[in-house]
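Researcher: We're teaching a course module on how sequence relates to structure. For the next exercise, students receive a sequence and then see the predicted structure as tokens, so they can try to spot secondary structure elements on their own. Here is the exercise chain.
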Amino acid sequence: MSKDAAKPQKKNLAIHLVAGGIAGCCEALSCHPLDTIKVRLQLRGERGARKPLTTAAGDAMKAAAAQPKSQNFISVGVQIARKEGVLSLYKGLGAVVTGIVPKMAIRFSSFEYFKAKMADKTTGKVSAGGNFMAGLAAGTTEAVLVVTPMDVIKIRLQAQRHSMTDPLDIPKYRNAAHCAYVMIQEEGIASLYKGVGLTALRQATNQAANFTVYQYLRKVLHEKQPQYGDTLPAYQHLIMGFVSGACGPLFNAPIDTIKTRIQKNPSKEKGWTRFMSVTTGIIKNEGYTAFYKGLTPRVLRVAPGQAITFMVSGIFPMLSFVCLLFGWQ
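Model: And here is the predicted structure for the students to work with:
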């Protein structure tokens, strides 16, 4: 075998971004309602001694506290659709779609960069531990540069309990761009980075789990099915995407719940003080199980979403590996 044949083919970033962008948009359109339901469940029962800084925030807190505690994610979705309109399940979608391509560009390029740093200098191969560390680094990078502002805006829009069928029911934030503008005007540009540490931790653990599990499953399947060569059947990519996509939410649900609470409302508390205030408030008022609110819709969104991304990206023969890179958080 020649040296040239032994070298892995260089991935075309432009093709990856186009394919991943299409896949990401399809996944978002399919699964965003589950994310809205997840956020509403995570905010359910939210309490605190702090004085609300805005009337809208106070009304939202009262509404959340007044709702029954025993509702499951299906009944919450039905309630949102009935009271606020079916399109309300897609609140915050604009922020998600806007951030898809830059997030994928950063995720792909940073993972490849860190993966190359972790590769064995002699063989060029990357161990499971190397993939894990590269995934951690890639997740942290995307969280700091793109995901945190996108998440903050998305959650502010999703938390608004206004009817999208009533033109007179005007919300504080009309869309993603307006939300960003109002937040910067009222709270400063730093408000877009509320919970950046927790977002980075969530993204890092998500991508570390995704990359590690996917690479392991792919290696095992290749070894057991040499007849397929370098390309595995589409249904196997679908299964690998589902399994790897479910690992992150199962592991970091408490991080995601605390992050949602922090990013939802303006607060004078910062950093560790805010983190402890939210965390102790959840434990005191709602119990430890409250950290896992919204877990079911999150798993149902992320795992099938990862699978959907694999399926759509599968129409591009070159993208068997990049499917993982574009899976949702």
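Model: If you want an answer key for the exercise: The CA atoms of residues 13 and 105 lie 8 Å apart. The radius of gyration is 21 Å.
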